[in-house]
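Before a colleague's protein record goes any further, I have to sign it off. What it holds is a sequence and that sequence's fold in token form. My question to you is simply how this chain folds and whether the tokens agree. Thanks in advance; the entry in question is below:
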Amino acid sequence: MLSVALLSKWHVHWVDYMNEALANPNISIQRVWDEDAHRGEAWAADLGVAFERDLDKLLADPSIHAVIVTTPTNMHKDVIIRAANSGKHIFTEKVLALSVSDCAEIYEAVERNNVQLMISLPRLVEPYYLFAQEAVDQGILGELNTVRVRVAHDGTVRTSKNPHGWLPQHFYDPVLCGGGAFVDLGAHAIYLTNRFGGKAKTVTANFVVPKGYEVDVHAVATVEYESGAIGILETGFTSGAGMFIMELHGTKGTIVVENHKVRMRLAGSEWEEVNDLPARMLMPMEQWVMSIQGGYAPTICKEDAILLTAINEAAALSASTGGRIKLQGVSAATGKAI
């Protein structure tokens, strides 16, 4: 049984990971820590477990085997490295860190201490992604030239029920978040497109920061890949009918995904709905637990985490300077520029 501590209720996905942990027969939630002690104490009371105010004391406890991290994004590097140096396995909300160099430091600590780190990139286990990836790998679409992914919701849209939108106000803090819609929600578009496109060469981004906000609430980036494919990444907190769209266009055909519905059209044929999709793979948390138990190699890997941050970092620079950013090669083995 994996004895786990929950670290922070800051990110909106805390409830998802808590529920996944509660539902997993191999996980036992034993402790709570939160940078907001009042919030953490109430959370621990709801769960019927102890609250620990001192993170170092919690991490030094040998009865705690692993941690689930949903802290502010700017705390990830410090918290994850401290956890790794204490011999704890780590499951973390995306993004891993706000710079490639920070990712490299995290992985150095993780690998030196021989602990398992999993970043939650859940769309990489979904049937629509698995089908599309298989089609690309088998050359069914021919030479892939364009990938467009849109992930958007209405978190900032003001309603009578939510006058400021349903996202917590701290999601607009540029220091805590390291950005706005693109760095967080846009991460899904980034890691999906990276899987299809391969190594990125350049990034150009436009972030919209409305009056009264300090971060982007909707954004678009284009990524040029060494393969010749172009990625179009769209995201936002301002989409009243927000939905997930993924398009893959190649010389022999096209795949379009709308939410979980998949259509495909090959050259010379008509559109067809694809109903025979692969089974969903194990969720990231399930993969994490199995990797700790041994004998299981997760499908979500270090390269996914590092290249996600590389695009995010370049997009932020592009948006702030108005320029086209050339990416240095990033080693998936070290997280460092090559």
The chain has eleven helices and 15 strands. The CA atoms of residues 107 and 130 lie 27 Å apart.
